[in-house]
Design a protein that fits this description.
Elements: E1 8-12, E2 30-35, E3 44-49, E4 53-56, E5 66-74, E6 77-85
Antiparallel strand pairs: 1-3, 2-3, 4-5, 5-6
Length: 95
């Protein structure tokens, strides 16, 4: 049902950690890309339709930032999609 309506779903405040597998959060027809909790806060993920040509962009990740990036290829064009979690009260300097 979801795969008929959405191609990409971004989620913040996922609260996922290593003990929750991708299998536990599967949505049929989607591949999940995730960045889990940091200091027991946040977490973020992106579900991308398996019908899209896409891949996770690990090279864009920053260790101190809770963000997940994917690149989608549509009609020979590249589209970058990110889901970013910023903890409450965090300043730009604290990144």
């Amino acid at each position: 049902m979801l795969s008929d309506e959405f191609a990409v779903i971004a989620v913040t405040e996922s609260w996922l950690d290593q003990e929750i597998s991708d299998h536990d959060i599967v949505i049929d027809g989607f591949e999940v890309h995730r960045k889990d909790l940091n200091d027991n806060q946040g977490g973020t993920l992106i579900y991308a339709s398996k019908s899209l040509t896409h891949w996770k962009r690990n090279d864009l990740e920053i260790a101190t930032l809770q963000a997940v990036w994917i690149e989608i290829r549509v009609n020979n064009k590249k589209i970058l999609v990110s889901s970013i979690y910023r903890p409450p009260g965090q300043t730009a300097i604290e990144r």
